[in-house]
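Quick one - first record:
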Amino acid sequence: MELYGTSRILENGELAIGEIPVSKLAKTYGTPLYVYDELFIREQMRAYQRPFQHAHLPYRIAYACKAFCTIGICQIAKSEGMWLDVVSEGELYTALQAGFNPNHICMNGNNKSERELRYAVHAGVGLIIVDNFYEIELLAAILREQRRSLDILLRVAPGVEAHTHEFISTGQQDSKFGFDLKSGQIEMAVRRVKEHEELHLVGLHSHIGSQIFDVEGFRLAAHRLAEQYAFLTSNYQLELSVLNLGGGLGVRYTEEDTPTPIERLTAELIHVTQDAFSSFGIPFPLLMLEPGRSIVAQAGTTLYEVGSRKEIPSVRTYVAVDGGMTDNPRLALYGAKYEAAIATRMHEKPTEKVSIAGKCCESGDMLVWDAQLPEAKAGDLLAISCTGAYNYSMASNYNRIPRPAAVLVKEGFARLLVARESVEDMCRLDCILDE
């Protein structure tokens, strides 16, 4: 299993994260347990900002809350000078509970409800990324009613096919997100926006997908958006100043993944944007990025306790743990791959190939296929790395299994990000029928 951030192996062969042995964390907080490396999260946030600071260029880095959203993570983003990208009332509420400046929050999403838009306007969010024609009229009506105005971006589907899983590819023409570039929907949207003085169009947005390892898709998207900038500014007298290239930078889950380091890829994104805009004679815009996964994924490790084994001679050995698709549904959703280790015997060489199963009543409840491990025994502590993004945020109560706790570790100290859910918590909103 690859180690990230402050993770290291102690002399006794035990994994430690943030200078805390994982057995101590498991004993204190129970399992399954999400463990987050605070110093690593902060370093990832800073890595996105350094290329812009060195080049003295205007920028905004908005942490995409969908990857992992808690009050504590929003507090960290705030302290690191980040913006936030939210996509729901719940994410916005969480950000505000963290004391986040609403003017440094942008709201995204393809089907924002009237309730969510009213909440965003009332809260004073700094930017709304408008996704469709319905939203133009709905947002304008809400702003007119409240006698307010608001900066917006138009989300563009630039027709760029990101080399990623089809379920996390979002920039192609056939997508539920954004105005289609090829059919001229952007120009139609601009004409609609200009009918409403409450809407201040300041730029364009695109997001071509997720888990992307190189800059080529962004290069094409930047060129197509720069071309639209040139056309719209000359034909519609617009003063556009913001380009949002979204997020989607990939991370290493297994040795098959070969991501580009954040600082290098960010510098390349700056370069392709400069090239695209200079080719149309347009000044460099305020460049906005929305990373989520690449900030928190590798900073997260999930700890489990091993339970039962099932050996099928000449077929497969299953090792079951006390979690599963309820705390990490990504393998079940789109075949995501992970690395695992016996967390208290990191020095031992693998002696068997096993598949790590969850405890849910689903054949698809698997966490890792064909993991190479030392002999896994009941009571062993198993660690799965790179589980910081889209694990807790996608967790469920299937089979009425409570969601795990999440803990933040740093320099020998641990703080709860999220307390462990109880069975009482799950029943709290249930209604008892009258006899």
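second record:
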Amino acid sequence: MPENCSPLNAALCATEPTPPEDPAAPAPSVTVTLRDIASFIPAKPGNEMEPGGWAVEDLPANFVAEASAQVVSGTLLGRPADVRFTPVAFRWRHSDGGVVESGAPGETWAALGQREFTPTGTSHVYAESGEYTVTLEAVLRAEYRFGGSGWRSIAGTLAVAGDPQRVLVGEFDTVLTNGDCNANPSGPGC
């Protein structure tokens, strides 16, 4: 058979695959690839940041992905099917050249029990003031099933990018104080 022969490219194959007549029948004994599920489109991940849309030069900004497992229905190999996409990793690409990778979507400082501007596993520090963008990619594992059968894994992963987010970075000077930070460590700016 030709190298590009697959059930979705039947014209390239010596013979067309014949789908089973019973929709509840077991899945065909073919290998389903990421290319075969190209028509199953997962949702773009959301990207939240703390503080919202701005950051302070030389202090961590915290990023939190919004992505979860999702099932997309459609037709696969000529049969009704479901494809489940599950996030397994996250990658934030910053326009200053920084890349942050994590196996978890991150959490807010409050959920982590941390003070604002403390480092997290998904934070990034901008070294200079300016306007930047950050784009989140969710790395997804895919599985498929026919007619309610068990889920079958598809080899490989795919990265789905969210919309770029604008980040304004500036310098910060504490102006209002209630004593120095040694005398009042919970005061503004401490």
